Amino acid sequence: MNFSPDSSPFFNTKSNKSPFSLDLLPNLPDDTIRLLKESGFLSIKDLVIEGPIEISARVGINIDDSIFIYNQSITFLEDLGIMEKRFTPATTLYHKRKKIGRISTGSKNFDKLLGGGIETNAITEVYGEFGTGKTQLCHTACVMVQLDHSDGGLEGGALYIDTENTFRPERIDAISRARALNPTKVLDNIVVAKAYSSSHQELILSESSKIIESQDIKLMIFDSAISLYRSEFLGLSTLSIRQQRLNKLVHTIMRIAQTHQIAVLLTNQVQSSPESGFAGNAFKAAGGNIFAHSSTYRIFLRKADRNRIARIVDSPNHPESEILFTIGESGISDPIKNKT
């Protein structure tokens, strides 16, 4: 898959008038800017997302020069208010976070658990066994993100990176109709990228900025983020390589979320955890400490008869708690209370 100006109908070629054009970086020779563009860096955001080591490797310049370019890019985005200043009063951060964008999950209970919905500039990870609602949450979020701000949306599109062949347009159709929305318009605002290997997944991620910018994407979904790595890197001999690549993957995802100010929702698989079985939870999220330390919010899903339970197990600002939700025609929603 290659989202290029010539091969993709979703990509609109940007002129040098772009507010993030490389030509706006000060103190860079024209030859350096030309090399950056020829190496696939189309905007200042691309430089920040990839980092100095990747810049050096792809452009063929020494690491000191690439660090200088990277720091110039960071400063540029700081001046625009896209990234935080190096030294910022806590009160400024507090007032800024009160205005941060959030996407409704479709369930008031679930939204309350997350402090208002799926947060932008952050990674929200959900994990659980098969059938606990991970993919249903992803499909519902694709619809909800397109709603007005007053209805819990961000009036933007969704990028759905599908690694397990789980995306179903007919499910989007059903959720849209159940929520009195035009399914054709909703589907038009969802871009799907199917990944067939871990390297293909990384390629899609490296080219995602083009789609995010041109399609006004406000939500990026990985369903799931780790499955291809688990299927390709088998045994202890490959564990180190797998974890290195996963580490780079999740940090790139976080930089994309921050530079583009979008929400990221990723699903994760589970693995047996015999040591915690007596505590009532015999599973833990796959990916080890890499994912445990990289996700901003971590939610564990499990079945509860016909309903589902979502438990927040890791968050920088939420207490550990759980709620009940259900899955129906409208996607994720709250259980119907029995009248007494």
From TrEMBL:
Involved in DNA repair and in homologous recombination. Binds and assemble on single-stranded DNA to form a nucleoprotein filament. Hydrolyzes ATP in a ssDNA-dependent manner and promotes DNA strand exchange between homologous DNA molecules. Transmembrane segments: none annotated. SMART domains: AAA (SM00382). GO terms for molecular function: ATP binding; ATP-dependent DNA damage sensor activity; DNA binding. The lineage of its organism: Archaea, Nitrososphaerota, Nitrososphaeria, Nitrososphaerales, Nitrososphaeraceae. Keywords: ATP-binding, DNA damage, DNA recombination, DNA-binding, Nucleotide-binding. Residues 99-270, 278-334 form the RecA family profile domain. It comes from Candidatus Nitrosocosmicus oleophilus. This is DNA repair and recombination protein RadA. InterPro entries: AAA+_ATPase (IPR003593), DNA_recomb/repair_RecA-like (IPR016467), P-loop_NTPase (IPR027417), Rad51_C (IPR013632), RecA_ATP-bd (IPR020588), RecA_monomer-monomer_interface (IPR020587). Belongs to the eukaryotic RecA-like protein family. Pfam families: Rad51. It comes from the Archaea. GO terms for biological process: DNA recombination; DNA repair.
